[in-house]
Design a protein that fits this description.
By secondary structure, the protein is mostly helical. 82% of the residues lie in helices and 0% in strands. The chain has three helices and no strands. Helix 1 runs antiparallel to helix 2. The longest helix has 43 residues. The radius of gyration is 22 Å and the shape is elongated.
Length: 113
């Protein structure tokens, strides 16, 4: 039983380290896409390690299935929300570029003085 507890402590601690790394990436990286990459990758891996650490501690198979279903649901929602945020940011960048082209008469390739 002690080996199971050590395994759980190790995996949960490792998962928490990945969550901390993702948070640091969110705070430190320069643009939205880098921040999303750091956050989603580390959060998915951190949650997976925590889930794998908790599985040996459950008493029944039904509880283990519930934990795995929660993990799968969070993986799905994390990927979906990341995709939506990235798509919104890309559309915002494209609309800013289009506005810049309409407001700047020299950007069309004309002769500059």
């Amino acid at each position: 039983m002690m080996i199971v507890n050590i395994y759980t402590i190790f995996m949960v601690s490792l998962g928490c380290l990945f969550f901390i790394a993702g948070t640091l990436g969110l705070l430190r990286f320069p643009d939205v896409f880098c921040r999303l990459h750091a956050l989603t990758k580390s959060d998915n891996l951190g949650l997976g390690l925590i889930t794998l650490g908790l599985l040996p501690q459950v008493d029944s198979v039904s509880m283990a299935i519930k934990i795995l279903l929660i993990w799968a649901l969070l993986l799905l929602t994390s990927a979906t929300s990341c995709h939506l945020v990235a798509r919104h940011e890309r559309r915002r960048q494209l609309s800013e570029q289009a506005e810049g082209l309409h407001n700047n008469p020299h950007s069309e390739g004309g002769n500059e003085p």
